[in-house]
Design goal:
Mean pLDDT: 92
Helix content: 40-55%
Distance between the termini: 57 Å
Order of helices and strands: HHEHHHHEHEHHHHHHHHEHHEEEHHH
Largest sheet: 7 strands, mixed
Shape: globular
Strand content: 5-15%
Structural class: alpha/beta
Radius of gyration: 23 Å
Number of helices: 20
Strand order of the largest sheet: 3-2-4-1-5-6-7
Length: 465
């Protein structure tokens, strides 16, 4: 998009949105033949627009009315944004699975439907192993657009003045998809404000953004331990998944034993990636109905639950280092503000992975259901809150906004994917924006403990037990 058109577009949207505080959140994908009917079940492979459907019509739309501070004198003094990278290519591991499925469909599928002929004669396996999780153009746009929207949501914080003044810090994982997402976020801001005479640094910090790699106990007890995901394996071999595989085999008219759980997953990913990357409602999506997609979603949620979520205590405790980093920054901003100084780090943008966000969300107690997700309770988990399709699309973002409301009244507002959320256990007061001291009291045990080195030590010393 030429710069002049970009700027005019931004100004136009800003103008019309200043008069609007409501958005359609009930947009039906069936109204748009380019959106797969099962798109809302794509878990961590889903588009951000499926979480916020109003963005399909206006990718720069914002709704400042969601912030609702308790009094007009409340002003933002600090914002931390922890953001997942944007849309990416599949990993080499998944490309191999997709290639295997494609070859099977080309050589063995006997059905005569037009969508299958399209796969066999027109579709090409264009994914290659060297793509291996790299950011795609849609992922670049995800972060450019998010940067513009956040600058509209928080115009006094994410501003040209603060960017040029060095009050906005950028931290990223070393992975190319995260570094390129960080560059894209910065490009969204510099493009918005037509900054061409200055560049802005970012720091690579895997200790913060890839803490899971450096937590020995997590790596040994969960990541490299097949038994840690036994519930996932049981579900993938269970009746619900087996029925999905049989239905895929029926649609392709191939023997049941040919379609494995890996192939079902590969087909689901092909549908998801074709849509996320190219906005195409692919013929691959015809292999699933809504019931199938719900099973596939649960299989992935089950994996995330046991590998990064509530399944094992070390999953969340591995994020202790990021938890303490967040609160030490909030404390620093609080102390600077109390002493009348300008907050030196007004905004911190941290770009990582789904595996960065989910352990922290878990540590903070978000999306915890009364019953654990298991291989046998799929039917009773249809209303679960632990749903990665809603929590962790590409460019998912967890924001913590610190407000000074005057007279020492400091408040902290959490937002997930540009929607307000409530700190678990703090629902009895002004839920979306509790007192900062109440938040700290709620997490007192974690703030006084949750030591990364102690938690991640493979063999705990007696004093740590």
């Amino acid at each position: 998009m030429p710069d002049i058109v970009w700027k005019v577009t931004v100004v136009y949207f800003t103008t019309i949105l200043s008069f609007c505080c409501c958005f359609r959140t009930d947009v039906n994908p069936e109204d748009n033949p380019n959106i797969p009917a099962i798109a809302k079940y794509f878990t961590t492979k889903g588009r951000y627009e499926e979480v916020n459907p109003y963005l399909r019509d206006d990718i720069l739309a914002v709704n400042r009315s969601i912030l609702q501070p308790p009094s007009p004198q409340c002003r933002e003094i600090h914002l931390t944004a922890i953001i997942r990278h944007g849309t990416r290519y599949p990993t080499s591991k998944n490309v191999k699975k997709m290639q295997k499925l494609y070859e099977l469909v080309k050589s063995s599928a006997a059905a005569k439907e037009s969508w299958l002929r399209e796969i066999q004669t027109q579709w090409r396996m264009w994914y290659t192993e060297d793509m291996d999780g790299r950011l795609v153009q849609k992922g670049v746009d995800d972060h450019k657009h998010l940067a513009v929207r956040l600058s509209k949501l928080f115009p006094t914080m994410i501003s040209e003045e603060k960017l040029r003044g060095g009050f906005i810090n950028f931290i990223t994982s070393s992975k190319h998809r995260c570094v390129n997402s960080t560059l894209s976020f910065k490009a969204g801001l510099t493009g918005l404000w037509d900054i061409t005479d200055e560049e802005f640094d970012h720091a690579v910090n895997d200790a913060l953004m890839r803490f899971f790699d450096q937590c020995t106990r997590f790596v040994e007890e969960v990541d490299n331990n097949p038994s840690a995901l036994s519930e996932v394996d049981k579900f993938r071999q269970g009746p619900e998944m087996r029925r999905v595989q049989e239905k895929i085999a029926d649609r392709l008219r191939v023997p049941y034993d040919i379609i494995t759980d890996d192939m079902a997953e590969a087909a689901f990913y092909l549908c998801a990636y074709e849509f996320a990357i190219k906005t195409v409602n692919s013929a691959w999506c015809r292999l699933f109905d809504e019931v199938d997609a719900q099973v596939m979603e649960y299989a992935n949620d089950l994996k995330q639950f046991w590998k990064r979520g509530y399944g094992h205590d070390i999953n969340s405790k591995s994020s202790c280092i990021l938890f303490h980093d967040l609160f030490s920054r909030l404390d620093k901003a609080t102390n600077e503000n109390k002493s009348g100084q300008q907050v030196t780090e007004a905004v911190t943008v941290q770009v990582g992975h789904a595996e960065t966000l989910l352990p922290l969300l878990t540590l903070l107690g978000f999306f915890k259901d009364s019953d654990a997700l298991t291989s046998t309770n799929y039917a009773s988990q249809t209303q679960r809150s632990f749903r990665t399709s809603h929590m962790l699309p590409y460019a998912a973002n967890l924001l913590f906004v610190l407000y000074d409301c005057g007279g020492g009244d400091l408040r902290l507002q959490p937002l997930l994917n540009e929607k307000t959320v409530t700190f678990p256990g703090l629902t009895d007061q002004r839920a979306s924006m509790p007192l900062y001291e109440d938040v700290k009291e709620h997490y007192r045990e974690l703030l006084q403990g949750c030591d990364f080195e102690a938690e991640c030590r493979l063999f705990k010393r007696p004093a740590d037990v």
